[in-house]
Amino acid sequence: MIPSRLIVLDLYRGLAAFLVMMYHFQESFNTSILNNIVITNGHVFTDYFFVLSGFVIHYSYSSKKHPIRFLLKRLNRVYPLLFTISCVYFFYRILGNIIVNNSDFIVIKDIVTQFIYSLFLLNSTPVFDNLSGTIGPSWSISGEIIAYVFYAFCMAINNRKN
Asked: Cα(50)–Cα(40) distance, rounded to whole angstroms?
């Protein structure tokens, strides 16, 4: 019997996600606790997290033959949070820049463009520009969803072959 979860890999993914989070905290809060070789190089754990996640997802879905169901399940898990946080942060930035900073049209246009990049998952691709999206680290969510689309496409091709 094949186990449905790989608990050890889930623990490693959790540790990698925690170290990436601490890396982002270290960028904002320069304290002696966060200023060490592991945390200051925490960006490396993003790749580690993605590789482990790719393996776990393939392990979980390799016996299933429904690429559309896979894609919808993954999108329903990831996209609503990205959408919600992007909207909240977008309104926070718009109101802050209009009310507090009296920003000009160019600043507001950039904020709207970044918001659109986040909503349409363009902030991990160099398609139009190098804008990061509404929330800087959300590029990883964009990349994750694009990888899901690619995996579902490969799953559909594999189904056709069989």
From this structure: 19
